[in-house]
Amino acid sequence: MLPDMISSYISDHLDVFTGELAQILSIPSVSTLSEHAPDVLRAAQWVFDQLKKNGFNGRIYPTERHPIVLARSAEVSGAPVLLLYGHYDVQPPEPLDEWQTPPFAPDIRDGFIYARGASDDKGQFLTYIKAVEAVVGVSGKLPINLIVLAEGEEEIGSPNLEKFLIDHREELRADAVAISDSSKIGPDMPAITYALRGLSYLQVDISGPRFDLHSGVFGGIVYNPAQALVDILQKLKNPDGSIAIPGFYEDAVGLAQWEREEMAAVPIDIDALKNYVGVSELTGEPGYSVTERNTARPTLDINGLWGGFSGEGAKTIIPARAGAKVSMRLVANQVPQRIDQMVSRFITDLCPTGVHAEVRGLYHADPVLINRDTRAMVAAQRAIEAGFGKKPRFKREGGSIPVVNLIKKHLDQESILLLGWGNPDDGPHSPNERFSLDDFHRGIRTAAALFHEMAR
Ligand code: BES
Ligand code: MN
Ligand code: MN
User: Fold this and answer.
1) Ligand 1: does its nearest atom lie under 6 Å from the Cβ of 428?
2) Strand, helix or coil for residue 82
3) Looking at residue 321, what is its pLDDT?
4) Of 374, 341, 383, 378, the residue nearest 360 (C-alpha)
5) At 47, is the pLDDT very low, low, confident or very high (cuts 50, 70, 90)?
6) In this predicted model, what pLDDT tens digit does every residue of 65-85 receive, in sequence order?
């Protein structure tokens, strides 16, 4: 349900709201780079000011790295409590020369706003704040109590959020949690996400000789660290693409038949997908569909590798060092810490004598499966129908959001709504990331409708 006056208010203020979205998108709040720490703080302040302006009380809490914003709407006694989570940090924008317009100079073209963070997650998160503004603008107050929790460390694995949730348990008590940091199935196919993959991210460093050696003088007698690295990486997967690490799949919950059928019923345009990605063939684990492979099955990827000479021309050396970043997407009930141990052991056991392998865990996110049978789910379905004009379907997402399992675990919360307003081709983490202004509009409408549905 979306009262007409609120609907009109949102339509009438869209240009202003879009201008504000452009403001926050202009702040280069890249959490992984310490030189951008002041920008992450500025983004936190921007969010906090928006909340204050709408009658919220709260604080910006410093952490060891980037701040956390926690604020609460003016108390409506007896009304349900919704906890909203979002993140105002972004991934680095590189490679810069692939952007049509600069990543932190938001540009509107063909109904999309282009900027780093447009879809992930500034644009999606802002829909709720603008919904608050519309509802308060028309009715003077919200029909629910809203707690906003926003962080600047999601893109680096939320390292300081767990302690914060534990320390602020009581203030975070809510009837349901809403997070919009994922995507719909297609532009006119809204969805509620009920599963996220987890993540285990490792760095492998191989070291050998004390310094780079002449490959003519020492070739044939010294183990080459780059060779050791590729030998090891090669053994992580079987020729058919499945993961070869013993025990890797052990804890992974398989797909039930009903779920496979439900997933198969969602239309997917494989040619469009290949075209978007720019590849001639898709690949993956045998026995699973494309949708199953990229949302419901664990994976292992080499995210980067280095070693030796890669400049112009040739240099005849045996490099002293080589390394790689390797990450695994996990599904329920795989435990990232267990997987880390398993993979680290496997790698160090494979490492030939004469070189040394060191494996370090960089960060983790737990996989999640969400209960679809909650009252809040019904409210969300109705709100999406009001905001997008279509009933949502259920979907799994292949990405990871660390806070979701932290909320389940530490706030004892089962009622979690993952309501993605984005599109699968928004390009989060890619050059030319964008967010559809139509989705921005419909997201604001849906958020406003959700406040009312929760209060019913
Ligand atoms: N919003 C994304 C996660 C996401 C992407 C969910 C697409 C659904 C669809 C989030 O900001 C993200 O990028 N998470 C990281 C994990 C984090 C630990 C760095 C990811 O999935 O790589
Ligand atoms: Mn995100
Ligand atoms: Mn992201």
Assistant:
1) yes
2) strand
3) 98
4) 341
5) very high
6) 999 999 999 999 999 999 999
State what percent of residues in the chain have pLDDT above 70. 100
Report how far Cα 406 is from the mean position of its chain's Cα atoms. Answer: 14
Q: Is 422 in the pocket of ligand 1 (CB under 6 A)?
A: no
Which ligand places an atom closest to the C-alpha of 198?
1
Ligand (nearest to CA of 159) = 1
* 154 Cβ below 6 A of ligand 1: yes
CA of 440 to the centre of ligand 1 (A): 19
What is the pTM assigned to this prediction? 0.95
Ligand 1 pocket member 89 (CB < 6 A): no
Q: For residue 19, name the pLDDT band (cuts at 50, 70, 90).
A: very high
User: What pLDDT sits at residue 20?
Assistant: 98
- Taking only the tens place, the pLDDT of each residue in 158-198 is 999 999 999 999 999 999 999 999 999 999 999 999 999 99
Ligand 3 centroid from CA 91, angstroms: 6
Q: How many helices (H) and strands (E) does the chain have?
A: 14, 18
**299 CA to centre of ligand 3 in angstroms:** 18
Residue having the nearest C-alpha atom to atom 4 of ligand 1 = 399
Sequence spans of domains, the chain: 4-196+367-455, 198-252+298-365
Residues 6+ away with beta carbon under 8 Å from 72: 56, 57, 58, 145, 146, 147, 148, 171
Residue whose token pair is 């447009």: 118
Q: Which of 31, 88, 154 to mutate to test the pocket of ligand 1 (most atoms within 8 A of CB)?
A: 154
Cα distance between residue 185 and residue 425, in whole Å: 10
401 CA to middle of ligand 1, Å?
Answer: 5
CATH class of 4-196+367-455: alpha beta
Centre of ligand 2 to C-alpha 367, Å, is: 15
CATH T-level topology, domain 198-252+298-365: Alpha-Beta Plaits (3.30.70)
**Residue 210 burial by CB count (10 A; 0-12/13-18/19+): exposed, middle or buried?**
exposed
Tell me the CA–centroid distance for residue 64 and ligand 1, in Å: 22
* Predicted confidence (pLDDT) per residue in 368-412, tens digit: 999 999 999 999 999 999 999 999 999 999 999 999 999 999 999
Contact of 427 with 419, CB cutoff 8 Å: no
Q: What is the pLDDT of residue 452?
A: 98
- Which ligand is located closest to the Cα atom of residue 121? 2
The answer, yes or no, to whether any atom of ligand 1 lies below 6 A from the CB of 294, is no
